[in-house]
Design a protein that fits this description.
Blueprint (H helix, E strand, L loop, with lengths): L1 H14 L2 E5 L2 H17 L4 E4 L6 H12 L9 E4 L1 E3 L10 H8 L11 E2 L8 H14 L5 E5 L20 E4 L2 H5 L14 E4 L2 H5 L3 E6 L5 H8 L18 E6 L9 H28 L1
Length: 287
């Protein structure tokens, strides 16, 4: 019986990008938080995190969870996925400052365990190679948390970029900068370039978790999950990842064709996991 339940879970996880559809953005943030809490309770030690509007509610959930005593970041390394070029680390528009203001100041992360790309570097090639080495040094990223852009962007990876890229230089689109315009006083202050983990770098993670909400994300979600794997939608490359979950609200899922299938497979895995938990408890009680 236990083998049957475990087999269902493994079959679902190995053959499909897992799609979780929830009523609204708050539910998306809460569910993503539960996934992160579960993985941290199982000892993951390195997480990749995004900036921008997409993860803000999730970071609020993480801060609240830490306050409740549910999380301990003291032994965890966090890697920021992106940084703007020619933007200093203390600039309010920098990705480093974004994470500090919206997450790090609320949790017990050791500053020595936070890893950021240097937007003021004189040698972006060497900087990106060093960043890749840092990820390798901690044993690789265990969980990449990814916000989805309206054209399928993840991190700063833009449509038409390589699906096998490593951390490197990128030219930024207006759509990407839209997420950050609140941090830059005028259009003239917008950075035009950035440094970003590449798609190939992201694909190396043990697990990927994508979050998206809102009707404006519907086309990107459909292309990510059901479209062809194409540089036109960078996130579509994650269809090839062995363990990828995308958590979306009803609005963002509105253009998916197979919503009933996704809901059924998610329900089947949940039932199988509940059965496994009961069987494990029965085994423990019998010993």
């Amino acid at each position: 019986m236990a083998a049957d339940a475990a087999g269902i879970c493994n079959a679902i996880r190995s053959k499909f990008m897992k799609v979780i559809i929830l009523p609204h953005d708050k539910a998306v943030a809460k569910h993503a938080y539960q996934i992160i809490m579960d993985r941290m309770s199982n000892g993951i030690n390195a997480i990749g995190l995004p900036c921008g509007k997409a993860p803000l509610k999730l970071y609020g959930e993480i801060a609240n969870g830490f306050k409740r005593g549910e999380l301990d970041f003291s032994g965890v390394s966090i890697f920021s996925q992106t940084e703007f070029l020619c933007v200093g680390e203390n600039d309010p528009g920098s990705c480093r400052q974004f994470l500090e203001d919206n997450l790090f100041c609320y949790i017990n992360i050791n500053p020595d365990n936070t890893h950021h790309l240097d937007g003021m570097t004189d040698d972006h090639v060497a900087e990106c190679e060093y960043f890749e080495d840092e990820m390798e040094y901690v044993g690789g990223i265990k969980l990449q948390v990814l916000g989805l852009g309206p054209f399928g962007q993840i991190a700063f990876n833009q449509p038409s970029g390589s699906l096998n890229s490593h951390t490197g230089f990128v030219a930024l689109s207006k759509e990407t900068l839209e997420d950050y315009k609140m941090f830059f006083p005028t259009d003239k202050d917008y950075p035009l370039y950035g440094l970003s983990m590449g798609i190939g770098t992201i694909m190396k993670a043990d697990e990927c978790l994508i979050i998206a909400s809102g009707e404006e994300m519907a086309d990107a979600v459909a292309a990510t999950v059901e479209g062809p794997v194409s540089a036109a939608c960078p996130a579509s490359a994650l269809q090839y990842h062995e363990k990828c979950t995308i958590v979306v609200d009803e609005a963002a899922a509105s253009k998916l064709r197979y919503t009933e299938f996704y809901k059924a497979t998610a329900d089947a895995e949940e039932r199988a996991l509940e059965e496994l938990a009961i069987l494990h408890q029965e085994l423990d009680d019998s010993e």
